[in-house]
Each structure stands twice: as structure tokens, then as C-alpha cells.
Amino acid sequence: MGHELRWGLIGASTIAHEWMIDAIRAQPGNAVAAVLSGDRARGEAYAAKHGIAKSCTSLDALLADPGIDAVYISTINELHATQAIAAANAGKHVLCEKPLAMTLDDAHAIVDACRRAGVVLGTNHHLRNAATHLALRQLVRDGAIGRPLYARVFHAVHLPEHLQGWRIAQPSAGAGVILDITVHDVDTLRFILDAEPVEAVAMTPPPSLASEGVDDGVMAVLRFDNDVLVQLHDAFTVAYAGTGIEIHGTAGSLIGRDVMTQRPVGEVIVRDATGERTVPVVHHNLYERSLARFNAAVMSRGVEQPAATGEDGVRSLAAALAVRQAVRSGERTRVQAGL
């Protein structure tokens, strides 16, 4: 039996349109009750298109609505902290898009506000919900490749024109590939390896799509606390590379092809002394699993946890910020999550 959870959307966003509204409605007892947009006409059109009863232009008005139990925040990155803290103070459960915030201080403030209010906080790192990544995590845990030594993530894509906007032009809003893609890679590796990044080195090329001062590509190397070395290649400017992840260990390798995506696709391959084999994977909607885990956390009053917690959001943000600092300084940079 489902738990009644009525959602307010903070942000009339593309990701809510394409994925999250349907994922919310797929949960028993869940409904989308309202949407917030600073543009009244956009908000009303969005609400009409998606059959949402209420459209707001005021955050205070949305949070004052007793008919809303939880909020999903998908606004530009610089607004996450203010909106999430206000929602917590209003007693609403919070599911926030990544990155959780722009700074570690703000991310910690979100976690603290939700803890004080006794509400559930989740960071919507969707990739850890993929069947492929769940399989990779289990294979590592089962010792399928022995002790992990190295990993590679290739997540260089072409950012669709309709998503470019502030992501390539507004540093103050959290633009750039590091807070958009690298933060996902780090969270996925933290999940699969069950380990934490401790230091980073990184370089970026001159921007070719983004405005001056905004990184639209990066290569980075991170060391994790289990001594696994990780190489990342992220970009907004590569159309045909495909995505994937590799984990190489003392007894074999894991290959995930076409797995760094919102879509429930891709395959997992094991290579070892016996040869190469494909691991059976039953795909599912990543966002529906995220919402199911969030519902379970609400229903259990904190006994269960969201797929990615607020603390996960802090740790993955800390690693992304270390990558960005390593780019700027040209030096090896410590990851300091402060948890």
C-alpha cells in the first residue's frame, strides 16, 4: 500500500517534464499538487500541460500550502540552498537535484535544516538507481574482479541545445560541466566502489561551446580512500563518443557500456581468466526507483534512506569542487567534505 505524498514542483523544468512528473505519479498514493515558476505564464502553461491543479509564482505561497507534503527542486543550482532550507523550515520533505548546492557551506546548511525539521532529504543522483550500476556495485562487492585497482568513466556527450542556456553561460548559476556531469560521475563511483575520493588533479581545454570562464570539458584523475585511481572524461561538446564505466581489478575487469544516461539502457560485461560474459540486467526506470526509495524513507520515518541522501549530495559535491579547484590551481587538491 502506498503512502499519500503530495508534491510541489519547485521549478517548471525540463527534467520534471521529461522524467520526474511521471515518476512521481507512478508511486502509489503520490500526486503532483503544484508547480512554482517565477514566470506566471510559463507556470500556468506548464501546469495545464501536465494536469497540475495549482501554479505559483511565490515560494512562500507554495510552502504555505498544507496540501503539499514534499517538494522536488530542479531550479538553477544557485537557488537550491535557499529553496531547500525554506522547504525544510516549512516541514516539507525535500528531493533536490544535483548538485545539492553551489558551496559546501550551503550543502551542509541544507542537511542541517532538514535534520532539525525531521524531514527526509534526498539528492536526485539518478545514475545510482540504474540496474547496470546496481549490478556493477554487487559484482565489486562479490569480489568478481578481485581487489579493484583502477576505474575509468567516459561521460563526454553533446549538451542538447534546449538544455544549454545557463549551463554554458552563467557561472554564478553553477554553469559548467563539472557541476553538471562530473558530480554525477563521482557519486556513481562512490556508490559502485563503496569508497570515498580523497584527492584530485584535473585539466580543462579552452571552451568551444561555453562562454569564457565556463568549463565545457574536463579530464580528471581522483584517488579514492581504498587506493583506487579513477580517470574521468566529461564534456558538453562530444556527440558520438558513447558513455561508459570500467572497473579494473586484480582478477578481472567490469565494463559498463552506454550506462551514464537517464535512460534504462546499457550492458555490463565481465572479463577475466575464463573469458568475457555479459551479465543479465533487468532494466527499470531510474527515476521511478529514486521516488520509490524516497517514499520508503518517508514511510519508515527515517529507518529507510533515499537512494542518495543529503550526505551523499555533500560528499559528491565536495569531490566536484575539488576537481574544479584542481583545474584552477594546477595542483593536487584534497577532497574535504567536512562530514
UniProtKB/TrEMBL annotation:
SUPFAM superfamilies: Glyceraldehyde-3-phosphate dehydrogenase-like, C-terminal domain, NAD(P)-binding Rossmann-fold domains. Pfam families: GFO_IDH_MocA (PF01408), GFO_IDH_MocA_C3 (PF22725). Residues 134-254 form the GFO/IDH/MocA-like oxidoreductase domain. It comes from the Bacteria. Residues 5-125 form the Gfo/Idh/MocA-like oxidoreductase N-terminal domain. Keywords: Oxidoreductase. InterPro entries: Gfo/Idh/MocA-like_OxRdtase_N, Gfo/Idh/MocA_oxidrdct_glycsds, GFO_IDH_MocA-like_dom, NAD(P)-bd_dom_sf. The keyword Oxidoreductase applies. PANTHER family: BCDNA.GH03377 (PTHR43818:SF11). This is Gfo/Idh/MocA family oxidoreductase. It comes from Paraburkholderia dipogonis.
